[in-house]
Write a structure and sequence with these properties.
Order of helices and strands: HHHHEEE
Number of domains: 2
Largest sheet: 3 strands, antiparallel
Helix content: 25-40%
Oligomer: single chain
Distance between the termini: 23 Å
Structural class: alpha+beta
Number of helices: 4
Length: 106
């Protein structure tokens, strides 16, 4: 979490292109290029991170919350993209090659 907070602060403060080298230059002491590179290969359990944030800062047991989900298919012609497969597109009424995104909102 400490590394994530340093990188976020650097990204907000940066001007120009956001690269690993530029991130390492804009972060505080203790975040070298290798540290930023290692962080980019770290798997972050985002669902758990968001739940901890919501529970700590937003959740009120007296309120009622609504969770909504939406799915989208983005067509793609490439063959090497990670996650590329055939998904049903309601606009085209057939399975199309592309990427599938599912978003939750609270």
């Amino acid at each position: 979490m400490r590394q994530l907070s340093r990188i976020i602060v650097a990204m907000i403060a940066m001007t120009g292109r956001v690269t690993m080298l530029e991130l390492s230059r804009w972060t505080e002491k203790g975040s070298s290029y290798r540290s930023v590179q290692r962080f980019n290969y770290t798997v972050i359990p985002w669902a758990q991170v968001f739940w901890v944030f919501i529970r700590a800062y937003l959740l009120d047991h007296q309120d009622t919350y609504l969770l909504a989900g939406d799915e989208s298919v983005v067509t793609k012609a490439g063959k090497q993209t990670h996650g590329l497969d055939y998904f049903f597109s309601s606009l085209q009424q057939k399975a199309v090659p592309g990427l599938f995104f599912f978003t939750l909102s609270l």
